[in-house]
Amino acid sequence: MKSVPVRCPVCSREHTYAAPAYPCPCGAPTAPPLLPGAPAVQVVRRTWDEDWVTVRCTACDRRDQWPQPELCCPCGTLLRIPVRPMDEPAAPPGPAAPAHIPLPRTAAHPRPTFRPRTIRTGHDAVSAAALYLTWLGYREVARPRTRPAGGIDLRATGLVAQVDATTRPVELRAVECLWLNALGASAAGVFFSLAGYVAEARARADGIGLPLFVMDLDGTPQPVNSPADELVSTGA
């Protein structure tokens, strides 16, 4: 799939993005066609209607709903990547960018490519986060039988994690509550969100070393602060 340049309207950081491909029921890899030259749009508040696009399979002509391509800038801004209208002619194919988070070249044992799970519900979001934590190397990742009042959605050996699947950015209080729960359990904490984090929450997470991730609807978490970058690089 062809990659396109993406500029963050908040911090002006430049990115290169390629939409991840998923198999059509016919078996052909299919991805939303990106619109080169169109500016990325900051996602302030999610609406489910805007989070899906209609994509036509070039092999069988089937039309299905696919996750709207999104990218999380390291500054914490969630960006929606414009997609070419379904009936507009496609651009010539080009090289694809990796659909996973690459490890540093110095990593001794690179992990295999992360295989995401499409998010359509809050339950899917928790499942996607569990898959990602397992990919990072955490063992026995599971949901508590009953969700504690503190909001812990996942536990693993030496880890507690929270997954916010709402359409509002995570507030400071939620980050601090997860941190306190992690301290009480003598474990590390990791936060996943679909809608990002307010500035105060990101600043607090940086100060206490709490990894923050944003997930797009294809189920691929992206690190949004230095502790998350370090976790991706080193693994569990």
From TrEMBL:
Region (Disordered): 89-118
Highest taxon of the lineage: Bacteria
Protein name, UniProt field: Restriction endonuclease type IV Mrr domain-containing protein
